[in-house]
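Annotated sample (chain length 196).
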Amino acid sequence: MMGRTMVLMGSVSAARENARFRRQRLMISAATLLAAAGIAGTTLAAAPVAHADVPSLYPLYTWWNPDRGDNFTTGNRNDENSATAAAYLPIRKEAFVYETQQPGTVPLHLFWSDSRQDNFSTATQVGIDSAYSAGYTYIGIQGYINTGQEPGTSPLYQFWSEARQDNVIAVDQTTIDSAYSAGYVLIRVEGYAPHY
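Output written by the structure step:
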């Protein structure tokens, strides 16, 4: 009886050893196939790119100057420095802008009116034309926003207050609610901004 058990255990052990060698041979065969395909110039499967080009985003902040009664939206470090130098107070992050132009994006332009003491951000031709016709001076590009709604983006709303002679763009619901409660009127959607 003892001899039979030893033989059975030996058979199980041998079977395990054979299975291990078969797996190794299969792995070697697969590696050989892949190598052969590479040599022949055939692509079997596209490997994922380890570091895909991801567009760089910059926060789009809303600032407020109580003395001027002006909202100022900034999308880059230079505009933030200008807001700080002009005694604007940071309110909140609205969304993000792309730092460089991407497919399906347009520039978010910044204008300034000395007579109104108003900063005006716009991404539409209608907004640009309105800025020039109201005597605003072009300052520069704040970043880039989407022209259509993409996953992870929200509408960038343009509001206007006749009483304050002030434009404000808003993505964040708190800013939108504040604009309505202060008597601002919704003018248009400027585009769509990444919002997290």
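Annotation: The longest helix spans residues 2-40.
Annotation: The helical segments are 2-40, 77-85, 125-133, 173-181.
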